[in-house]
Amino acid sequence: MPLDRRKFLGRSAATGAAVALAGTATVAASPAAGRRPGRRYEFSVLGTTDLHGNVFNWDYFTDAEFDDKDHNDIGLAKISTLVKQVRADRGARDTLLIDAGDTIQGTQLSYYYAKVDPITGPGGPVHPMARAMNAIGYDAAALGNHEFNYGIPVLRKFAEQCDFPLLGANALDARTARPAFAPYWMTRLRTPFGRPVRVAVLGLTNPGIALWDKAHVQGKLTFPGLVEQAAKYVPRLRSMGADVVIVSAHSGTSGTSSYGDLLPHVENAAAHVAQRVPGIDAILVGHAHAEIPEYRVVNEETGREVVLSEPLKWGQRLTVFDFGLVWERGRWQVESVTSKVLNSNTAAEDPEIVRLLTGEHEKVVSYVNQVIGTSARRMAADEAPYKDTPIIDLINHVQAQTVRAALAGTEHAKLPVLSQASCFSRTAVVPVGEVTIREVAGLYPFENTLEARLLTGAQLREYLEHSARYYVRTPAGGGVDPAKLTNANGTPDYNYDAVSGVTYEIDIAKEPGRRIAKLCFEGRPVTDDARFVLAVNNYRASGGGNFPHVATAKQVWSTSEEIRNTIIAWVRAKGTIDPEEFATQDWKLTRDGAPVFYSPLEHRPYAQCPCCG
């Protein structure tokens, strides 16, 4: 069924430009050095990215004000205050506000209005992110990959509720190959000289959506590369009279991809766009959760610098691009572009946003604090990146049980079921005593779903070797600092998998690719031709992290139910979480065969596994 494009093209692509007239201008006091005097105009473009459902400076998983080691603050309420300050300083009519995507997923607030009280329901509520961004006065936003996590109907409804367009020049209708969302937005800024400045914002999203949210988009949308689509649209925008072209790209600057060669397009391609596509003045960068106040890339065709900036995630920073233009040879020329970021922890929450959304916030706080069971022991994730801990075992236990039950009575019922899980949050805790929704949800903050894939013993070993690259090579004989042991080559925690159902050692004294030792199943070495079912999340199964084999392995089962909800339902049904029922020592770090850390679970499987000594 073709996608309805009318809503998204009405303000921009269908007409060529949506006109939002602006007023007074700020004129430079003196011309730039080496240039003849001319009429000058200055304006600013403010940018956010990766807001991930954060309206307030609040952590729904800890039920407390957000804080981190750097004392950052988060949320649109603080961004609103910063925006108002900049508008007051530079002129509201000479200031635009855009976003680079990943808006409606990430907190229990955004989850609640997608799943518990969905915006798609009859007479459903307006999404809190739409209400906040409308009130602040956003002009345009690019689509992020997480916009698709809840399915296209939720995204479409969110788009309808926004007073600004969601842009995606490389999000195409699979049937017609035409834009499924507005590719760009254009506006005119009035100057004191009677000649407006035409500003275009081109939106680009991440090709990885085709893999990560395959269940939602396959057969409906396609996602060509950022460079290819920018090369198509930037000349068109210039021919339409754009004096300034800004790209809002949900794509990092590193030039890397987490999905390897599963797609022909680069995941983090923002710098490539700047380098290879002429005619761009600035790029608001997203997706990588990095802080880049200003990064200059020289375009290989024109030799001109393109200014890139990425504000830190969750509303922790606000990017400010400042543009200086001069009227020369009958047109506006971009004379200068600079960028910087403002820190949200310097601002108070905007009372207007607080008043607007306190009701929604309190409703979600009440929801996440519902008690769903009790725990016999406190379980914490602080050591999970380098020790086999019960809190990760809980995830693997629930996933493996779920897959075993689903495969009962099928041809694969007798195969051993393994499970993978990552430490998504080192601060996650399941307390002793009463356990709430927020505490269980804190183990799994992503909207991943569960699949079952077939792997051989040889493929499993390669999978584990890939995962073990996460550790910094550490020779035997000296001390080990846990703070310096993980995240080798920038590998995030969510791309290290602990696998349950087999036992194995990871020798961190050895080079990557030769670290897995004593890989056993039920006390016997795993043979290359052994067959296993792996319970795996859809991100990993679709190529996330570029793990070998799993993305091409045969799928024997899948579900649209989120893993987080599966764990919550398991706790509700059991009533009590007792690590004695599921916690086992499946893996450990070694150096030349000697354990790196002691684990209280050490005795459990290894005592009955002769090959593990």
TrEMBL record:
It is found in: Cell envelope. Signal peptide: none annotated. Its cofactor is a divalent metal cation. It comes from the Bacteria. PROSITE patterns: 5_NUCLEOTIDASE_2 (PS00786), TAT (PS51318). Keywords: Hydrolase, Metal-binding, Multifunctional enzyme, Nucleotide-binding, Signal. One of its GO terms (biological process) is nucleotide catabolic process. It catalyses: a ribonucleoside 3'-phosphate + H2O = a ribonucleoside + phosphate; a nucleoside 2',3'-cyclic phosphate + H2O = a nucleoside 3'-phosphate + H(+). Residues 44-290 form the Calcineurin-like phosphoesterase domain. Pfam families: 5_nucleotid_C, Metallophos. Residues 371-551 form the 5'-Nucleotidase C-terminal domain. One of its GO terms (molecular function) is 3'-nucleotidase activity. One of its GO terms (cellular component) is outer membrane-bounded periplasmic space. Belongs to the 5'-nucleotidase family. This is 5'-nucleotidase C-terminal domain-containing protein. It comes from Streptomyces buecherae.
